[in-house]
């Protein structure tokens, strides 16, 4: 096996052992490491840079939608959790509890936030007085903790980073509309930033957020055909405003409870983009969030002028706002090609004496391995155009793949066959919990989201009239 | 009392009741609120925007100094804390402890990080193999928790936000040099970003970080003459590398322990800038971190063209990268003047029919209340120049004030008199702990930092030969 294969050989085969492929790439590309406490992760610089890019892109979108960032405390009194009955039932089994602090036993145990509806609700209750204070919209970037039995870096960890948006409105209609609007922001973000197609829709009662009236989710299809819930938006009605006394004096002088909603995405998005785009050679980074968008590799680096030209190119690309690395290490070009391919850098630029003479550089795309010669003159604009094309092609490819893997089923056997062969299965559902549970038991698949229209006539389980058309899938 | 005084009257007098003035301004300007759990704070959007600006400015500086951001877990096994004897002694009394999670009692209690030398040291020990991996530099933005008896928003809260930088070097000299270098970055930041003068220097053994070989600090003088420790940089020697097995194979093939250092600043910086620059009317925001750099107030807003001109001005200033608010609310101009003054906005822009006719706008500075007319043509550049001047003037004013309030003392009585009248006191010290304790007992003052040169001959307590010249002060 040639030297250039030494990296590829370190990664498990993506088709035959996808879980091992995932562990291999996230560890070997230094995105992440396991933390000392079971279920925790350390986000290393190459992974954290993706998160910072995600944050920047979301902050711009949140600002446009009139969200302001704020920060609420990590520790929530246990008594807050119990104020909303469904909420505590859903989250109590997962919370981490602080019982001692400052050398003493606490009078009331405190839980580390698994989500912040309760503590933010409490503050909103203090702050809001009149209809003039509404709508109120805030977003928080924070760490949260949910104690999980089975964990995997980015996908499910006891501590993770996320954003949670929380809003209050005077009417149910406004709060419901905001729930849809922020789901649409997530969908647009997935497409244009992560190059990731998603299915969006309402969740069933069984799958909704604990304490919500309705949860809307977006689901992405991973390389193995399993689904990953990648973001949720919840309409909370008056459940939390009644629990935390979020009242306002309306224009008519009457005190009323507000209507709230919340929405969140987490570091899980990093897992989602890895498992959507990755291939047998490793990561394939969406250009908008790639920590390194282009790597410059000198060819015959010792030849006069080559390194200087590479440095000048790096500078001019960097000054135009691109994230660029010049790999001037001692390793061979072939070794470098493989390393940066595994790290998923969208564009590799090769520059050698002959290129220089011709005033060109060679660009190799990570998404489809196509190579093209580009003039050094005006390189920044050409590279930007190429990165845009890469992002669009990655989306198109993933979308075609997802679309081709959505199948219909009219029987449980058909549903099982569908998920067994790595598909999302569209099927009718009568709306009862027993039939939903039956799908889980029979096919180890869960309802991901409900389709916007009910196009299928009969329930895939009981054969009664279908109330919803549901996308079923195995899920992370 | 006129309408325009209604806000001013809500704030306690800054000279006679500084602690109450502080509480009043931080709450009434909606920078912060008290959290439900004692000692915690909620950072509201107006306060959090300052923190985001601080982060942006630091990130640029850290990148220049080759730091990469990463994220390490919140929970640290108790056994890690005990590996460095001084470290656990210093922090154990302040930690919050998680004893239960996921509905079960944990086998080993976990503490919420009060600082991350231990867990980062553990990971560095896993990652570093050879001299090629050094130096290793990372920075983390995170929440930390130290259970404190007496708390005040921003200044001392059980949970706070901070950055912590952690580096490993092959030699003591490099690690010591880095400790100084990052202290210098802090000092430059304080000056150019917060317009805040500081004293920097080495801390005494008594005041150093638990586990450090040496701590260097920067101290800022608050309005009442008390000192606020605003940032620290620690040389850790091999204390943590021995505790966490941070070893590397050197060029000579021999395994050696690395030398580490760390440095941190926190949301306390927000308290520092408030108490450095604030005046009887409220906040005075340093322009570089001000959430709102200029507020536009329409005069005779109903006259034709005024509001349109204000909107156009806002747009052109915003597009040039300035943070601008247009206050087109129903309130009177006088009411608005006071509100935005209390919020400390550096520049107030008034625009009315006569200004429009003359092609000018009226600019009123928050720092010295000077007014000037500025051409609407090229307004963005003029406003930027003015903001720069405001920042420099705020620094100059604060520096003159601090310099004029540093006095020398040769006796304990002189030292007491000095701190009683709101000064930092420069005095000789023999270097023994007993004399340092005596100053605390007699004058309720502590050693803040040691002067770079030992210019005073005798210890202010015992009269023996002075080993260090020390700045003593009352401190937050």
Detailed description of the structure:
The structure is a homodimer of 476-residue chains. In chain A, 35% of the residues lie in helices and 27% in strands. Chain A has 476 residues and is of the alpha+beta class. A seven-stranded mixed beta sheet of chain A has the order 3-7-8-14-11-10-9, with helices on both faces. Chain A has a five-stranded mixed beta sheet with strand order 16-15-17-18-19, sandwiched between helices. Chain A has a four-stranded mixed beta sheet with strand order 20-21-23-22. In chain A, strand 15 (294-298), helix 9 and strand 16 (324-326) form a beta-alpha-beta unit. The first copy, chain A, is globular, with a radius of gyration of 25 Å. Mean pLDDT of chain A is 96; it is low at 1-6. Chains A and B meet through strand 2, helix 2, strand 3, strand 4 and strand 5 of A and strand 2, helix 2, strand 3, strand 4 and strand 5 of B. Strand 5 of chain A pairs antiparallel with strand 5 of chain B.
Helix share bin of chain A:
25-40%
Question: What is the mean pLDDT of chain A?
Answer: 96
Structural class of chain A: alpha+beta
Which quaternary structure do these chains form?
A: homodimer
Q: Provide the β-strand percentage band of chain A.
A: 25-35%
> Helical element count of chain A?
14
Unreliable stretches of chain A: 1-6
Largest sheet of chain A at a glance? Answer: 7 strands, mixed
